[in-house]
């Protein structure tokens, strides 16, 4: 789907970032291209060292790409210093100015833009209200809690009305409950302000909860871009399937293809239907991924496409995980929801059969 | 039989005793090395000068203090201000202030440079900064003389480059004293500045750039306010020894361009007026304390403004 550059808030084209030189050369980003649409909540998801923060810093202007171009609404911003880019950042450490009050922090960007005093005052008040911090306007940043600092950092970055807001793992320092609250808060702020958010995280749950689209990154490359549902249900690569949620990987052989579907033969001999990844035509030996909650127990072990023995039953409150060993030797996990009335009471050691419904299996690209 | 409270009381007494014993060395050093000599100076300043130096013990006089600020005309006995002394006071304060400002101007970028190096290289730079301390001050001052005298390195180099036709007279001028003092006291500015810059969170600098502040504004609005404790500490550490400098004005300034340190030495040496020397010394201390007081009050005020 080729996007027109002018329509995209940010377009990154073939950007590489090389650190060091000689033998110590290290490509933090390796020819990355991505288009981020206007008003989108876009997440860069990946483990530490995958290049997601480097990409964010290139967009912010703290570093410059070794190769490639970065467009902001069609304008090449790669050579501009950060103070000439209408883009603001929420830092992981918040980076609030300790020698200023909450209100002075929020007003700093507008002050630097040379806005008149009364306009700054009005805008700061609006921002304080937006993040519900009116009561603490004159506090020092050291006198407020971590969650409140987080809100101030957000208000400070939103105050100059940037075209794009960059968020560098802003929730990682908060405790679980506060993080949950802030996830919803961030989504609300994005809806209310209509600003394009680019959010960096290593937390898959955060990414799935908040994003319109997610780019999964690994080793300086973007592996897959898609909606949370796409990424979760249709992982194109083993890394994506492994990084996001839990997965069962099964070796298989391609039997036939029609459009975006294929029939594959598992090592047990059973043939199942599986989805094919985009822009790839796997052939021969492939890997099929099945999410644990998409697999179902068959009524009997005999005749089911897969059969095995339950080795472990793990109770998780909302769900129960059944760890199986298949007859073909591979491990396999089935997750069942603990709904009232029809809980699956299966004991460790019992033999079970497994059904894989149509569309539950996905063929991987590699 | 001891009751528990008796045991506790005894333990407490032993505790008090050992606390005093443990702090005794420090207290002795403070008394004999710091407070004691000050009282000796104070006492000397109120005594009558001896004929060949020293003081006449037990005789009280205000002559020492009187002659710090005033002088009696030899012929008609009228009293006037001691212009010679006052001009030396003023010169000393002026030269020390300029030294402090120059040291700040050179020290700030130096400290910033070091603080922004990778952690391992930083130690090397700090080490290099401290190397001059290994050499005696007198020797470094004579080396400085070798640099700035008419046939010295600086003049020879500038003439060779064709920048000047004839040597610039630097020796025995205030410029020479400034040159020497800035050189000698610069590390005392760089080290505290570096210490506070090292603690600076450079994310704040990036946050400044991100919020549309140019380099100059980031420096002015973010870096300088945050490293202020280092600026203050460095300025105090440079200003105080500059004010009492002795060797540098003596060697580089010659006999004419005296500073307070030389004036004091003169009274204890050739002048044979110990009470006056003592009184000037205490006046010097008073100037330093006054300067510190002004600084601290200014700080408190600007600090209050920021809240």
Automatic annotation (TrEMBL), chain A:
EC number from the UniProt entry: 7.6.2.11
Enzyme class (EC, first level): translocase
Signal peptide coordinates: none
InterPro entries registered for this protein in UniProt: AAA+_ATPase, ABC_SmlMolc_Importer, ABC_transporter-like_ATP-bd, ABC_transporter-like_CS, Mo/tungstate-bd_C_term_dom, NA-bd_OB-fold, P-loop_NTPase, PotA-like
Catalytic activity: ATP + H2O + polyamine-[polyamine-binding protein]Side 1 = ADP + phosphate + polyamineSide 2 + [polyamine-binding protein]Side 1
MF terms in GO: ABC-type putrescine transporter activity; ATP binding; ATP hydrolysis activity
SMART domains per UniProt: AAA
Keyword Thylakoid found: no
Keywords, alphabetical: ATP-binding, Cell membrane, Membrane, Nucleotide-binding, Translocase, Transport
SUPFAM superfamilies in the record: MOP-like, P-loop containing nucleoside triphosphate hydrolases
Keyword Plastid: no
Ranges of residues in domain ABC transporter: 10-244
Any one GO CC term of the record: ATP-binding cassette (ABC) transporter complex
CDD domains hit by this protein: ABC_PotA_N
Function: Part of the ABC transporter complex PotABCD involved in spermidine/putrescine import. Responsible for energy coupling to the transport system.
Sequence similarity: Belongs to the ABC transporter superfamily. Spermidine/putrescine importer (TC 3.A.1.11.1) family.
Subunit structure comment from the entry: The complex is composed of two ATP-binding proteins (PotA), two transmembrane proteins (PotB and PotC) and a solute-binding protein (PotD).
Protein's UniProt name: Spermidine/putrescine import ATP-binding protein PotA
Source organism phylogeny: Bacteria, Pseudomonadati, Pseudomonadota, Alphaproteobacteria, Hyphomicrobiales
Gene: potA
Automatic annotation (TrEMBL), chain B:
Annotated ABC transmembrane type-1 domain residues: 89-295
A Pfam family annotated for this UniProt entry: BPD_transp_1
Membrane-traversing stretches: 20-47, 95-115, 124-143, 175-197, 218-248, 276-296
UniProt membrane topology term: Multi-pass membrane protein
InterPro entries assigned to the protein according to its UniProt record, in alphabetical order: MetI-like, MetI-like_sf
Keywords: Cell membrane, Membrane, Transmembrane, Transmembrane helix, Transport
Keyword Membrane belongs to the record: yes
Any one GO BP annotation for this protein: transmembrane transport
Localisation per UniProt entry: Cell membrane
Keyword Transmembrane helix attributed: yes
GO cellular component: plasma membrane
Domain of life: Bacteria
Family stated for the protein in its record: Belongs to the binding-protein-dependent transport system permease family. CysTW subfamily.
Cited PANTHER family: INNER MEMBRANE ABC TRANSPORTER PERMEASE PROTEIN YDCU-RELATED, INNER MEMBRANE ABC TRANSPORTER PERMEASE PROTEIN YDCU-RELATED-RELATED
UniProt protein name: ABC transporter permease
Organism: Pseudaminobacter soli
């Amino acid at each position: 789907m080729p996007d027109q550059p002018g329509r995209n808030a940010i377009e990154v084209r073939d950007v590489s970032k090389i650190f060091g030189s000689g033998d110590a050369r290290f490509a933090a980003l390796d020819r990355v291209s991505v288009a981020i649409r206007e008003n989108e909540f876009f997440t860069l998801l990946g483990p530490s060292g995958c290049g997601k923060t480097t990409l964010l810093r290139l967009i912010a202007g703290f570093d410059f790409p070794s190769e490639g171009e970065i467009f902001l609404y069609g304008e090449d911003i790669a050579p501009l210093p950060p103070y000439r880019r209408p883009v603001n950042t929420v830092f992981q450490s918040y980076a609030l100015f300790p020698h200023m009050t909450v209100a002075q922090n929020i007003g700093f960007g507008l002050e630097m833009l040379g806005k008149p005093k009364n306009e700054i005052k009005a805008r700061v008040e609006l921002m304080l209200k937006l993040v519900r911090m009116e009561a603490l306007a004159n506090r020092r940043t050291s006198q407020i809690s971590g969650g409140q600092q987080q809100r101030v950092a957000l208000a400070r970055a939103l105050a100059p009305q940037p075209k794009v807001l960059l968020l560098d793992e802003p929730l990682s320092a908060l405790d679980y409950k506060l993080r949950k609250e802030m996830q919803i808060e961030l989504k609300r702020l994005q809806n209310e302000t209509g600003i394009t958010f680019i959010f960096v995280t290593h937390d898959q749950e955060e990414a799935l909860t908040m994003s319109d689209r997610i780019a999964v990154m690994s080793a300086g490359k973007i592996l897959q871009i898609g909606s949370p549902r796409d990424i979760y249900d249709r992982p194109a690569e083993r890394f994506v399937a492994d990084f996001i949620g839990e997965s069962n990987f099964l070796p298989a052989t391609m039997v036939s293809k029609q459009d975006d579907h294929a029939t594959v033969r598992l090592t047990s001999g059973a043939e199942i239907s599986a989805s094919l990844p985009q822009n790839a035509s796997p052939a021969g030996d492939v890997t099929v991924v099945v999410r644990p909650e998409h697999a179902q127990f068959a009524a009997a072990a005999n005749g089911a496409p897969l059969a095995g023995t339950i080795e472990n039953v793990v109770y998780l409150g909302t769900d129960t995980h059944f760890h199986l060993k298949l007859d073909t030797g591979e491990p396999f996990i089935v997750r069942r929801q603990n709904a009232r009335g029809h809980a699956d009471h299966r004991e460790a050691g019992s033999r079970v059969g497994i059904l894989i419904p149509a569309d539950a299996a996905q063929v991987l690209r590699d | 039989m001891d009751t528990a409270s008796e045991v506790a009381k005894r333990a407490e007494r032993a505790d008090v005793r050992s606390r005093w014993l443990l702090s005794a060395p420090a207290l002795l050093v403070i008394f004999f090395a710091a407070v004691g000599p000050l009282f000796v100076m104070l006492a000397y300043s109120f005594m009558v000068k001896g004929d060949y130096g020293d003081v006449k013990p037990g005789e009280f006089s205000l002559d020492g203090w009187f002659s710090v600020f005033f002088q009696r005309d030899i012929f008609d006995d009228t009293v006037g201000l001691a212009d010679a002394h006052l001009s030396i006071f003023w010169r000393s304060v002026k030269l020390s202030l300029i030294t402090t400002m120059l040291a700040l101007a050179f020290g700030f970028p130096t400290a910033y440079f070091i603080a922004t190096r990778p952690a391992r290289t930083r130690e090397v730079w700090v080490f290099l900064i401290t190397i001059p301390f290994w050499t005696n001050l007198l020797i470094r001052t004579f080396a400085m003389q070798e640099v700035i005298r008419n046939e010295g390195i600086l003049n020879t180099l500038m003439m060779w480059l064709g920048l000047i036709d004839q040597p610039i007279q630097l020796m025995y001028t205030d410029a020479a004293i400034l040159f020497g003092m800035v050189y000698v006291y610069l590390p005392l500015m760089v080290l505290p500045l570096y210490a506070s810059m090292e603690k600076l969170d450079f994310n704040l600098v990036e946050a400044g750039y991100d919020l549309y502040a140019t380099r100059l504004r980031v420096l002015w609005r973010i870096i300088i306010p945050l490293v202020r404790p280092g600026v203050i500490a460095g300025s105090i550490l440079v200003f105080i020894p500059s004010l009492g400098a002795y060797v540098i004005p003596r060697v580089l300034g010659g006999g004419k361009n005296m500073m307070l340190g030389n004036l004091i030495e003169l009274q204890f040496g050739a002048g044979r007026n110990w009470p006056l020397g003592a009184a000037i010394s205490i006046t010097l201390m008073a100037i330093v304390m006054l300067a510190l007081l002004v600084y601290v009050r200014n700080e408190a005020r600007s600090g209050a403004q920021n809240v």
